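Show me any protein, keeping tokens residue-aligned.
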Amino acid sequence: MNTQEVNVICSRECDWSSVLRKTSKEDLANFRWEMLQQELQDKASHLLQFMMAAVSNPRQKYNIRKTSEHIMPAVLDATAKLLSLYNDNMNAIRKIKGIILKKAGLKKTGFMRLAALYDTITYPSINRTLEAFGEHFQQPLLGWKRSEEVAYEQEKAGSPIEESLQDVPSKEESKMPPGYSFTGNSIIIRTFKNINKINLLTCLTFKKVVYNLKLSEIENYIA
């Protein structure tokens, strides 16, 4: 019975697609354990009952930290891991874990060890995933930068600045990550010893003027 249920939940028949197959950026961001629990109850109830029975302990009723509500995420995680072993495309949980571990700074060796246990995806896979998710992340910033350049050129030429480019923030600027904008009478930037080795461009907004500076040149603007 459990084998039949596993075949059903891992299949893609009749436009059915498990939540563990949905690995887009939006799907992973909106994932909830309740979604997987409901799916297992509908499609693989015997499998879920088997997993719950495997962790059932008579002493749990005396432990407020091991109620069904508290242990359910761990049970669902173990079930998702087994389903991923059965079908490698059921890997949403592994990708979520990979993103968390990458964000936390786990090194390549750590990914190799955990990926071998099917606790996460491989190091090259998580890098490709994050690159795909951030493919267009800088478009709002570039759009805002272009609008500021137009305003600066108009001001420099002595022509009136368009109303949309005056004090009203543009649509791109409103969506721009705040870390890219420095506005004020003075700028304080923490530098690092290897600052000259970093080959990046930083956009600084200072009195409505956009400067494209190499990080090695920022020291001239430190207050």
